[in-house]
Design brief:
Layout (H helix, E strand, L loop, with lengths): L1 H12 L8 H46 L2 H9 L1 H19 L14 H10 L1
Helix pairs in contact: 2-5, 3-4
């Protein structure tokens, strides 16, 4: 009797049979691919940020150590214009080195397939 009742309940409470929703599955897969691509881009951006931060810290530490030398202080007091020009050239070189690749070097926007996934999600 209990088995008959269990089979009756399973028949009554079972969801209706239907074809799989392929559009929903495609949207979910596209969203998962988009999220994986964006995660890879975030990791690449953070890696580039920390590498650049480490480079700037190394340059700053070098300038601090060099700034403490008496010979450099004597040169700076004799010709401050030359020191200013040297610092400006070094700063522009640092900006050139840090910004040479632009955002694509860190992976931002590097995969156009992500935009196709996003377009499929919106349709």
């Amino acid at each position: 009797m209990a088995e008959a009742f269990e089979s009756f309940l399973s028949e009554v409470l079972a969801p209706p049979t239907r074809d799989p929703d392929r559009a929903f599955v495609a949207k979910v897969q596209a969203r998962m691919a988009l999220e994986q691509g964006m995660e890879a881009q975030r990791r690449a951006l953070f890696g580039k940020f920390f590498r650049d931060l480490l480079g700037i810290a190394a340059v700053a530490a070098g300038l601090i150590v060099m700034g403490g030398s008496p010979e450099l202080l004597a040169f700076a007091s004799e010709s401050p214009g030359a020191v200013l020009a040297i610092v400006a050239i070094l700063f522009s070189f640092l900006l050139l080195v840090i910004g040479r690749g632009g955002p694509r070097s860190a992976g931002a926007g590097a995969d156009p397939a992500l935009f196709n996934h996003l377009a499929r999600l919106r349709s």
